[in-house]
Design a protein that fits this description.
Length: 294
């Protein structure tokens, strides 16, 4: 039996009754727009909120008829969207004030990810959208709504892209709440939680992270090739893993497609000696056998 998940959902009169009767921990309801399963939608000034129990319990999990192949559900596709009118206002939960950051500054943090499933399937999120446990979404206390983030499981290197459309979790030891499918693709469903890295994504620069073709690479530069994959998804997973293991090369990693395969490369490097140093670093920090190419 998994332990109770930290509360994240907004309150209602019914939730208040539960709170009084059961003494449960709860999450905020600063706005009447927030349904019993939805996240907090704050007013312009931080407002203390009554809350309801939330999270996954022994009877939570996938629905009775989940999609046949959750691995094939595509990640969220980053795109420019207007910020929600209300969901990015400051709000208070358990006496703590949260101020969503809408500055557009890059966000990178490591911490514990948890997930929520069928107990909230169909309930309203902080964005006002219904929660879909089979979509690639997540709840975060302060990232803008809506916004996009890459989440990487630090235990296995698996990585997904999610759309932030909800608030929570509100426990000091939790960083992000994932949809059931996002947690499944990261390998976190059975454990209930796991340590992850969360990186915000700027949709305006998202095309810069797309897979390049072989013709788009600089033939005059030196490159370090870390692997070649028949499936782009495997290449993307390896890229996420190497980003964590070899942080010094994170900004130089790219995927290159050609001849039916996707290659993971680091570069470009101006000289052979630079490329050799990078290859040595990869060998020292990973189990890969990189090749220096031009």
């Amino acid at each position: 039996m998994r332990r109770a998940h930290p509360s994240r959902r907004a309150a209602s009169g019914f939730a208040l009754a539960l709170l009084l009767l059961a003494g449960c921990a709860s999450a905020p309801a600063p706005s009447p727009r927030a349904a019993s399963g939805g996240g907090a939608i704050a007013s312009e000034k931080p407002t203390p909120a009554v809350a309801r129990p939330g999270g996954y319990y022994q009877d939570d999990g996938p629905g009775d008829n989940p999609p046949a192949d959750l691995e094939r559900i595509p990640d969220a596709e980053p795109k420019a969207e207007p910020l929600h009118r209300f969901a990015n206002n400051p709000y208070i939960v358990f006496g703590r004030t949260y101020v969503p950051d809408v500055s557009g500054r890059p966000y990178v943090a490591e911490g514990i990810a948890s997930w929520y499933g069928r107990k909230f399937h169909g309930a309203r999120t902080s964005s006002g959208e219904p929660y879909d446990m089979y979509a690639m979404t997540a709840a975060h206390p302060t990232l803008p709504i809506p916004s996009y983030a890459r989440v990487t499981n630090l235990a296995n290197g698996k990585s997904v892209i999610v759309r932030i459309n909800d608030r929570g979790p509100f426990h000091s030891d939790r960083l992000i709440d994932l949809s059931y499918t996002a947690a499944y693709k990261l390998g976190l469903v059975r454990t209930g939680s796991g340590r992850v890295r969360v990186e915000s994504i700027d949709p305006a620069n998202w095309n810069n992270n797309a897979i390049a073709t072989a013709a788009e690479t600089d033939d005059a530069a030196w490159w370090v090739q870390l692997g070649a994959f028949s499936l782009a998804s495997n290449a993307e997973q390896m890229l996420s893993r190497v980003k964590v293991q070899v942080a010094a090369l994170a900004d130089r990693l790219r995927l290159v497609e050609g001849e039916g395969v996707v290659r993971l490369r680091a570069g470009p490097f101006a000289s052979r000696s630079e490329a050799d140093e990078a290859a040595a670093l990869v060998r020292r920090l990973t189990e890969l056998a990189p090749l220096v190419i031009r």
